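User:
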Amino acid sequence: MRILLQFPEGLKRYALDYAAKLEADGNEVFISASPCYGACDLCLDEARHIRADKIIHYGHYPFIKKVLDIEVEYVPFYIDISPAVIEKLLSFVKDKGFRSISLNATVQHMHQFKDIVKRLEELQVKVVYKEGHLAAEPGHLLGCEDGSHFQEGVDAIITIADGLFHATAISKVPSVPVYVFNPYDGKATLINDIIKKRLRKRRAALAAAIEAETIAILVSTKPGQFSLSFALNTKKKLASFGKKTVLLVANELSPESVGNFQGIDVFINTACPRLADDHDRFGKPVLGMDLVGELFEQLSAMAPK
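Assistant: Predicted structure:
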C-alpha cells in the first residue's frame, strides 16, 4: 500500500520512526512536508499527485465528516500528564475554593480526561464538560471552535493545554475566570485580559468593515476550511450595500500571500477562524465569519430608507 503520512508541526520529529515501521510492514511510505495546522488541513493534493492509497493523519481526532476520494485514518497522539502535575491541578482547584468548574482539554490529554474529572469529583467539585459542534467528544476543545459554551453556571473555566491558543477561542467576554493549566509544569495562567483584548480587536475589525470601501474575502481550499458558498453569498450581499469586493483564494492564506494586493481596506476571512486573530500581521483588519451577520445588520440600519 502507498501511504502518505501527515504530522502537525510539533509532531514531525517523530515522522521518520513511524515511516520506518510502516515500511517494515511492506508499505511504500511518503511523508508530507507541507505545513499542517490541524485536523482540517489534510494533505489531499499531495496524496492525489503521488496516487496514495491512504493518508494517515497523526495528532488529531477525526474532523472532516464528508466522504473523500482518498481514505484518511486519523491517529490521535496522546501525551501523559504525570501524577505529580495532576495533583497540582487538584490542589489549585481546592486552594481557589472552586465548587464547580467547566473543564476541557486538547486532544493530547483526552485519554486522561475522565480520570481527572473523577478525581475532582472526589473532592466534591462539580465538573461540567460539554461537547462543541466540531469536537469529537465532551470536554475536547479545538483551537478553531468557539469555547463560549464552556462558561455557563460555574465558578471557573479550566483548559488543560500547552499554550494559550485553544483557550482563547471564545466569542464573548467570559463571565467567570478562565485559566489555562499547563500539563507539563502544572502552572495555571489567568487569561481573561487576553481574551478581552482579542475580542476588542474583533470589534474594531467590524467597525472598519462598516466604513470600508474595498473588502477582500479570503477563501481557503483546505478541505476542512473551504467555505465557497459563504464567500459568494457574502460578496453578493456586500455588493448590494455598494461595497467593492474581491475574492482571494489559496490553499494557505497568510500575510505574505495577500499582503502585496493594493487598495484593500478590510479582509473577511472564511477560512480558519483564527486567522482573524492575526490582525497585526495582516496589516489590515480581519473580520471573522461569526461577525458577518452583524455587519449586514449594521449596514442595513445605515442604508437609505
